[in-house]
Amino acid sequence: MSSSLKIDGLSVSYGPIPALRNVSIEVPEGGFVSVLGSNGAGKTTLVRTITGVLYLQKGKVTSGSITRDGQDMTKLKTRKIVTGGVAQVPEGRMLFPQLTVEENLRCGAASRRDLAGINDTLSEVFDLFPQLPPLQNQLAGLLSGGEQQMVAVGRALMAKPSLLVCDELSLGLAPLIVRDLFLLLDRINKEGVAVLAIEQNARIALQHSTYAYALEVGEIVLEGPSDELRENQEVQDLYMGGGGDSREAYAAIRREVNR
Amino acid sequence: MDILASTFFDWGVNLQLLVSGLALGAIYAVVALGFVLVEKSTAVLNLAVGEFLMLGSYFGVAFFMERKTNIFIGTLVITLVMALFGLAIHYGIMRPMVGQGFFAIVLATIGIATVIRAVVQMWFGPLEKGNLTALPTGTIEVAGTSIRWVDIIILLVVLGSVGAFLVFYARTRTGLHMRAVASNIEAAAGVGIDPDRAYAITWAMAIGIAGLGGVMLGHFTPSVNPALAAIGLRAFPAAAIGGFTSVGGSIIGGLIVGVIEQLAGGHFGTKWREPVAFGILILVLIFKPTGLFGQKDLERV
Ligand SMILES: Nc1ncnc2c1ncn2[C@@H]1O[C@H](COP(=O)(O)OP(=O)(O)O)[C@@H](O)[C@H]1O
Ligand SMILES: [Mg+2]
User: Fold this and answer.
1) Residue A37 Cβ contacting ligand 1 at under 6 Å
2) What is the CATH number of the domain that holds A54?
3) Is residue B296 part of a domain?
4) Pairs from A253-257 (Cβ < 8 Å, separation ≥ 24)
5) Does ipTM top 0.90?
6) pLDDT tens for residues B122-142?
């Protein structure tokens, strides 16, 4: 199967501090893949690298590559990456609080050249999130967390992506809202958009993805089909509040992997 | 008090002061607009605003006094040249300094100010020039009082340009992208907006509009001289009234400062103008630091 995104042996540092080491991840075309990882694992660094905004944090790719359809995009500018079909829902939503909901959404189409098509996509996004049209002219900073996350997803969709990268969609949201958002990701995925869901909330990520990776302290420590990982005791201990010290569980995973 | 007895309730004088205050305030408003725009988008505190304004006035001397250029063409050229100057500042100074501390960049703007002052003195000499007279110089009778045409024209030109800018900023795609960068640079970069390009446009517009303000100031003031740079610093009280973040607020702020200053100067003597203007700055900073129209912090999460 051809791949929507192939990350190969990627290492990233912020100055002298390494944040990712030899990370390899593949998202098949139209697939739904998740990357699990606890705080500081390197999840956001991974997203920044894929979407080309690492430079804003003075991060550097020290080795490895990111390719789409065999085309290298490791050094591309974000604009090119987005035009190429990769859109992100950043961690903490990162809306433009002083802009209206509609303006936020329109910013998602910043890299598009088919200006005429933007209004159509806007109506599609409004169809997908019926809660948003009444809030169209509200300032985004005044919305609830769940509404903001919808705007963030909608904004990414305004780029008409073929790959959607979500950084901790579930962060700070009530479980029901998280469930709805992931159901929506399923819908988007069914329409042919590949999804890379990067999550601390392993339970929901494993429920919706077909394949998953576990990222800890900058390295992939485990990978496999999501339903297998869901049954994995270490994964349960580490990410699903199965009790016990997470450091210990992490050590257990390392032993498992290195065996 | 004889002050009260003389002019305080003379409505003719008050009307004159109001109109000239609005004209002066409009000049403050464009400078404040440029200052706030740069500060908001690029997080650079541009302390050279006054010098850019003065430079615009001196360009006015070169074009309208020394060469008798047509006012429309001359003003357009000056605005464009100053906009190019803004681009040069972005690409030549600010962009290479990205990542340096706040103070380093503020000091760089002070350096720019000093260089402009020096170059202007070398070029035009230290003596003051007369005022510019390319705009109509006569007066018009309104309600029994004569109002200067220049004041009216300055007010209209500035309000027209500021209005055009606001429409651009609020309604166009590029304006939207500029606002997005000002709002959250990482998010803007993440959707594929080029922050660098937005910064470049911001600098070009801010300095271009200061050039326009300079041409207007050269017509307003009795003489063009290096001290005009101090006038540009009135952008600070104007911007403070807008809470240093509100583009619209700083425009209204400019008008308020101009009118209060002219009224104070007209009734109590010109030595009161500066203390009153900066008294407003201090009062606003103490009692309403978010500005009279400043936005509340919208970041909820
Ligand atoms: N801008 C930055 N500058 C320096 N170090 C950073 C920066 N962002 C993240 N890091 C470091 O990189 C590591 C991974 O962080 P991050 O990618 O944010 O992890 P996660 O998103 O999984 O919580 C952490 O050790 C963090 O301290
Ligand atoms: Mg993170």
Assistant:
1) yes
2) 3.40.50.300
3) no
4) A253/A214, A253/A216, A253/A221, A253/A222, A254/A216, A254/A221, A256/A222, A257/A221, A257/A222
5) no
6) 999 888 888 888 888 888 888
